[in-house]
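JOB MANIFEST
job_type = single_chain_structure
chain_count = 1
residues = 437
[input]
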Amino acid sequence: MRWWRLAIVAILVMLGAGVAPGRVPGAAAVGQWTTAASPEGPGAGRSGLTTLPDGRVLLTHFAQGGGAEARRFVAALYDPATDRWAATPAPDPAAGFAAPVLLHDGAVLVSGGGDTYPGGPGAPFITAGAQRYDPAANRWTPVGALARARDRHTATLLADGTVLIVGGQVGVGDGPSPALASAERFDPQTGQWSAAGALAAARTGHTATLLSDGRVLVVGGRVSDDPGAPGGEVLSAELYDPATGRWTLAAAPLRTHGAGHSATLLADGRVLVAGGDARGPGTPYLALTEIYDPAGDTWSLSAPLRQGRYGHTALTLPDGRILAVGGSDSLTELYDPARDLWVTEARSPLYDGVATLLRDGRALLVGSAGAALYAGSPADRACFAETGKCIAGRFLQYWREHGGLAINGYPLGDEQIEILEDGRAYTVQYFERSRLE
């Protein structure tokens, strides 16, 4: 059978399906990036994107650092139908600008935020302010204040419409900013803020994910904003129950993700945690991924990213796959939960940025150098009850074009990486009468 395998390999290479070491074939068609209109003058700083119920996207941006544009809160609205940006009112940053979250009534809540940069025209600050943006009135309105000024916290919309604020950091000037263990809760109906208990570990740079059962999973983070602080990574995970208002420790992740990772709820109720920076400055970002199962309070390692990522956005596409984009690199990756596999997509035009999913299924990425739109291709997959296995991507394309079931037979296993006779790594899949590489 060796001649048959070699013939298949030769044809696959000619078709471009031969896999170099470390590369895994993706979907049959690769998604595409196109340049979008850029918002005016965001500069360098921190941004948030929120997709509104009417399909427009709210950009909230805090320009920080030296120069005349320092410490300036900018807001703008993007209309995907026209590919145009429109300015919105932007109050003083001290009124709160961080952690945007979409409320049930279609408004957007921002809270806290700060600038510890010692240069520039203004003094460093961290605010407890909070405000609400009403898209219909195109207006920002103050909505009280946090009990504790904080920055780099998370804001999670709960099932009952209230918002959970978790952790973050305090401190201004040149020294490190210690993390907070406190949590707060905002009720949009009453406009009131209330305490929401305390975590077992103070953390900043963590993630907070709303689970299918209404609880919130908080993962990772650091004890301060100093990545080089010894023992600064927070390994633990915690659960908040809105019904009781209590925090409990969850099973700890198998590896520490530090700050800058993503946590995404999968369709089956599990949570995919990917990337981060847990090893301090000057070391590569993590390609590590793992999955938390709330039903059993357990963690399991999953397929790694194609390369390390930090500060990226992980978006759930309409077909259930996860798009990792922005942050530390222009590389775009897709995760297929059905195959536990990351594949490389086309590179985005931007090196950095934050992203959001549009109502039409595309993704909008906004960075310091402009904006771009991603349109994905649907996953191409064929599954067989006879063996319980599936064929996807270029393997499916080749299988169909070269004899299908009659010549190759049913798939006997999933795609896997093997070191073959030439000492190189290939992605292979076994069938009843062939092996595709």
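[summary]
Residues 1-29 have pLDDT under 50 and may be disordered.
The longest helix spans residues 2-15.
exit_status = 0
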